[in-house]
Specification:
187 residues, 4-stranded antiparallel beta sheet, two-stranded antiparallel sheet, 6 strands, elongated
Length: 187
């Protein structure tokens, strides 16, 4: 049977005794801490760039989802309102074509922030028609203020520049755009 441990042995075994460190171990510890700090400083621009990239991707994904929802809603409405092919139709009657008066133009502007063009001057997924891109030129047909200071313009896209997103509208498209997406109107 092993001998019993003396109480003085227990205190010797379980008490923490600080070891003295020499100058070499202090230097090594300082170098390791310095390398960790330099590494963190070097990674900061990379992390910030990744965060900005993720924000941009999330913004584009949200715009694409809104556009997809709007297309699905429009397609569903078109399917529900389609006339069956078996319905007999009356022959067209000749009518005098009215002379179209050109719409008054409030001014011209340029898109400075890409965003949604809508069927109505309100933010809802079902009103999205497509996207306007930075640099597109438009003519302003009507102005409307909603919710106090929120200005909307009914406009017609007259010139498109580049191809920023697949859901972009073509020249000739008319719809509503929030004033924050446009430059100051020019006469």
């Amino acid at each position: 049977m092993p001998p019993k441990t003396d109480p003085h042995d227990w205190s010797r075994l379980f008490e923490r005794h600080q070891r003295r460190r020499g100058p070499l171990s202090t230097l090594i510890a300082a170098l390791v801490i310095g390398m960790i700090i330099v590494g963190l400083i070097g990674l900061t621009p990379f992390v910030l760039d990744q965060l900005e990239t993720n924000r941009a991707i999330a913004r584009q994904t949200q715009i694409a989802l809104q556009t997809r929802e709007a297309r699905a809603t429009a397609q569903q409405a078109a399917t529900q309102s389609a006339i069956p092919a078996a319905t007999p139709t009356a022959p067209p009657t000749p009518t005098a074509t009215p002379t179209l008066m050109p719409e008054p133009i409030l001014g011209r502007a340029q898109v400075i922030n890409g965003g949604n063009i809508r069927r109505e001057p309100r933010v809802a997924a079902e009103t999205v028609m497509g996207q306007v891109c930075v640099g597109d030129r438009v003519v302003l047909l009507e102005e409307q203020t909603t919710n106090g200071a929120n200005r909307w313009y009914r406009l017609r896209v007259v010139e498109t520049v580049g191809n920023c997103v697949p859901e972009r509208v073509s020249a000739g498209t008319e719809g509503w755009v929030n004033a924050t997406l446009l430059s100051a109107p020019e006469p």
